[in-house]
TrEMBL record:
Residue stretches making up the OmpR/PhoB-type domain: 139-235
InterPro entries xref list: CheY-like_superfamily, OmpR/PhoB-type_DNA-bd, Sig_transdc_resp-reg_C-effctor, WalR-like, WH-like_DNA-bd_sf
Keyword terms of this UniProt record: DNA-binding, Phosphoprotein, Transcription, Transcription regulation, Two-component regulatory system
Protein name stated in the entry: Transcriptional regulator
GO biological process: one example: regulation of DNA-templated transcription
Residue ranges: DNA binding: 139-235
UniProt entry tagged with the keyword Transcription regulation: yes
Renumbered residue ranges of the record's region Disordered: 84-105
Lineage: Bacteria, Bacillati, Actinomycetota, Actinomycetes, Bifidobacteriales
SMART domains: Trans_reg_C (SM00862)
Signal sequence bounds: none
Biased segments, Basic and acidic residues type: 88-101
Length: 235
């Protein structure tokens, strides 16, 4: 997959490029690195990764290059959690950009967003999702550290994104519930109801087996599930 990475933050540009190239992706950057010999060679991106500060501060030449590439590419937007940056979003009508219409048009094409700061695993998970043929903007993934859940495919990955954890449907459902509460505890009853539904009291033994099996598989992968009484959490 050919990726165009647009950011004025050199540290972010170098780190993200190294991560993507180590995963086998072909990467070009805007602005190009000083030592980039391929700068003038033809390049058609399949995915554009754009930092949220880029539209407001890039020069016109680089903006025109991005607009041209985005005609046939998906867009992964790296959004800051900084409120000041969020307030400069062209879609809010508060940006001081030299060309608000161009910036707003670029952001209207966002296929996916990734909040900064992010881990290598999170970046690769989002790129992998967008690389799937026919992926829609409604697709979603969940991440907690190096744990990545592909919600659409109902698959979980830890560390390596080319090898899903061997989870049963019930084990995956329980894991997704735990990831969604972001470090908080869930009781056995909450997990039972979420995985098996209401009125399934006869499923208690089954659910206990599910939790033991899930804990064992996560431990084998290097991830720990904490149990405190009848409550569970990831990490």
């Amino acid at each position: 997959m050919r990726i165009l990475l647009a950011t004025l933050n050199m540290a972010l540009r170098n780190a993200a490029r190294a991560t993507l190239e180590s995963a086998g992706y072909i990467v070009r950057t805007i602005p190009a690195n000083d030592d980039e010999s391929e700068e003038n060679e033809p390049f058609t991106a399949e995915l554009v990764i754009m930092d949220d500060t880029f539209p407001q501060h890039a020069d016109r030449h680089d903006l025109d290059l991005i607009v041209t590439q985005m005609m046939n590419a998906k867009l992964l937007y790296l959004r800051s959690t900084n409120l000041d940056t969020a307030n400069d979003d062209p879609r809010n009508g508060t940006t001081d950009s030299r060309d608000t219409a161009t910036d707003a048009g670029m952001l209207s094409q966002i296929d996916d967003e990734l909040r900064k700061p992010f881990s290598d695993s999170e970046l690769l998970a989002h790129v992998r999702m967008l690389s799937r043929t026919g992926v829609s903007s409604g697709s979603s993934i969940l991440t907690r550290g190096d744990l990545t859940l592909d919600v659409d495919a109902r698959r979980a990955f830890y560390g390596r994104l080319d090898r899903p954890l061997p989870l049963s449907p019930r084990e995956y459902a329980a894991l997704e519930m735990l990831v969604r509460v972001d470090g908080d505890y869930l009781s056995f009853e909450e997990l039972l109801e979420g995985v098996c539904g209401n009125g399934f009291f006869e499923q208690r033994d089954v659910m206990m087996t599910v939790m033991r099996s899930l804990e064992r598989k996560l431990h084998q992968a290097g991830l720990f599930m904490t149990q405190r009484g009848d409550r569970y959490r990831i990490g």
